[in-house]
Design brief:
The protein is mostly beta strands and 604 residues long. The protein has four helices and 37 strands. The longest helix has 9 residues.
Length: 604
């Protein structure tokens, strides 16, 4: 159906002009006044739920020769994400029920003998096990608890309580990385829009006690499925593409996730395509956003809806599967024909990089005699058991399936589907870790110094409204004493008392015009400001652009915050969104004078 004949789509179309398989689009500027001309064909096709006994549904599923599909547990209502402890205990979160259940196969017959609730919180979804500790995520919160000898959980302790509010994508997932830190996926609040929270549409990283949280990577619409390759540590994520760009766009994206990189959403999609709906921040074009974005390494069928991912490190499957990844594809609602409704296999090369995605477990989607579609299940969770089987949860019919290898012929019979390799763009320079404040890392060429003032006195407490827990507003800063020949100013705000990164940089401002000697309170966090005209902002240690307020760990002694201003004999040849290191490198040899004011802040 087309937009002109589908009333159900008209409200959506008013919000989104999107490009389809053969768009006609002009995008010359990408700012206010951007011209776009796009026509798409949109589809709403929701297959019917088919209900059969669980064992009959298992018999209809298709895996490669030599594999067997059986029922591990049924009548579970809404099993979503899965995790398996070292002793083989299986856990599943149930978002609509709001709990976590544990299951054990006591007699070794491949079926769960007991199902018990071990934790309860509204909207429970993400789960990760680290030895004898479990981590759990709801929309806004992350909890941790010890795992008791009988498999139950001890008392839940909330370690994070301020993840961004949810919208279209409320399902947080998490994992402990090879660096022994916690990674949390936060989806976008919308299909395609400029987010008000810099933590939306990102992957976050934090210490395992919930502190030191930063944005690890951004521009990720909804990367529910992500995991680390067991041999190489390669960080792989499967991102959901934008809806309403047409049946064949946008591909689902397999990304190699690297620190500091931007993966394009909402402005760039697929292998570098421009989204005609969304205008980038003022002063930037879509071409600028494309240059800053990293393309996926492999694409997959649009709208397949990738969910939980797990690398196969077991011994139950043939050796060719070791080191590859599996991902649950929950299935489309806006594509003709429907896509997903399967388990896919991501083949990896020797370096741990994805090379192609192919079908592994199919049969959940059935086209009926009248041409309509029905489904036996919507795969959501996926985990590998100690005996080398793969468990798959279906959150719609309430079943967990067990896929095991029983025959000698384990060669995959599926044919690879859409996939193409692409070299990721170079990422941002890593933040310095030596703890040195910026003013100690540059050498002014003369004896002049700047006098810097703010809303706090030197060495006194910074008002709470400038903290992340307060208004998260940038403080007002003014300075004088700039020597003759000054062409621009740079401002850097560092916390050298943070554990990591060290120092933690809260604010980077550059190309402040020479005639400007003060910045007002509460500046926007856009890369380029309209007033003062030409002022650019860089990336802070949270991984976001602009100012990020003080947020030292509760219980720490007051941290020192250095607000440092530099007078330069030039403007910097840097694009908006530069890193601290890039700004400092560009300043070298051009600093005429510098000054700072130091304030303190502690959280109760």
């Amino acid at each position: 159906m087309t937009l002109t004949t589908a009333p159900r789509l008209l409200a959506r179309a008013a919000l989104l002009l999107a490009a389809g398989t053969a768009p006609v689009v002009a995008q010359p500027v990408g700012s206010v006044g951007q011209y776009s001309d796009a026509t798409i064909t949109g589809t709403v096709l929701e297959p019917r739920k088919l209900e059969l006994p669980a064992d009959e549904m298992a018999a209809l599923l298709r895996a490669p020769d030599g594999f067997e599909v059986s029922v591990f547990a049924s009548d579970l209502i809404n099993p979503r994400m899965l995790a398996v402890a070292e002793d083989g205990t299986v856990y599943a979160t149930r978002r609509t029920v709001g709990d976590v259940i544990m299951m054990r196969d006591e007699n070794g017959d491949g079926r769960a003998d007991d199902v018990r609730t071990v934790a309860s919180r509204p909207n429970m979804h993400g789960i990760a096990i680290d030895g004898r500790t479990v981590y759990l995520a709801t929309v806004n919160d992350v909890y941790t608890a010890p795992i008791n000898d009988d498999g139950t959980f001890g008392e839940l302790t909330r370690i994070i309580n301020d993840l961004p509010d949810a919208g279209q994508h409320p399902n947080r997932t998490l994992a402990v990385g090879p660096d022994d830190r916690l990674y949390i996926s936060v989806g976008s609040t919308c299909n395609a829009c400029a987010e008000s929270s810099p933590e939306s549409a990102t992957l976050l990283r934090a210490a395992k006690d919930g502190t030191s949280r930063t944005i690890f990577a951004k521009g990720l619409r909804n990367t529910i499925g992500f995991a680390f390759a067991p041999e190489t540590g390669t960080f792989v994520g499967f991102d959901h593409g934008i809806d309403w760009l047409g049946d064949e766009a946008q591909i689902e994206e397999v990304n190699v996730i690297e620190e500091g990189k931007d993966y394009g959403w909402p402005y760039i999609y697929g292998m570098g395509d421009l989204n005609p709906q969304d205008n980038p921040p003022e002063g930037l074009t879509l071409e600028d956003m494309r240059a800053q974005s990293t393309n996926p390494v492999v694409g997959y069928t649009p709208h397949a809806a990738p969910m939980q991912m797990a690398f196969y490190d077991g011994t139950g499957f043939p050796e060719e599967y070791r080191g590859d990844a599996f991902v649950a594809m929950r299935g489309s609602w806006n594509r003709r024909p429907p896509s997903g409704y399967e388990i896919a296999r991501i083949r990896m090369d020797d370096t741990g990089r994805p090379t192609v995605v192919e079908h592994f477990l199919e049969g959940f989607l059935i086209q009926q005699e009248d041409g309509s579609y029905g489904f036996l299940g919507r795969p959501t969770g996926l985990a590998v058991t100690p005996d080398g089987a793969v468990l798959v949860s279906d959150d719609t019919n309430g079943v967990i399936y067990r896929v095991s290898h029983t025959g000698a012929d384990g060669q995959a019979s599926a044919t690879p589907t859409t996939g193409s390799a692409s070299s990721p763009a170079t990422g941002a320079t890593e933040q310095p870790r030596d703890g040195k404040i910026a003013i100690a890392m540059v050498e002014p060429s003369g004896d002049a110094s700047l006098s810097v003032s703010s809303a706090f006195a030197a060495d006194q407490s910074i008002p709470a409204r400038y903290s992340a827990d307060g208004d998260n507003a940038s403080p007002p800063v003014s300075w004088d004493g700039a020597p003759e020949g000054t062409r621009s100013f740079v401002l850097v705000m560092d916390d050298p008392d943070a554990d990591q990164p060290k120092p933690f940089t809260h604010w980077i401002v550059y190309d402040v015009p020479a005639e400007v000697t003060s910045l007002r309170e509460g500046l926007p966090t856009t890369p380029i400001l309209q007033q003062p005209e030409g002022l650019k902002q860089g990336v802070n240690s949270m991984g976001a652009t602009g100012y990020f307020g003080m947020k030292p760990p509760v219980g720490d002694e007051a941290h020192r915050y250095h607000v440092q201003v530099f007078a330069l004999d030039k403007t910097l040849d840097l694009k908006p969104g530069a890193t601290r290191q890039a700004v400092l490198d560009a300043m070298k040899g051009h600093v005429l004078a510098a000054g700072e004011i130091v304030g303190t802040f502690a959280r109760n």
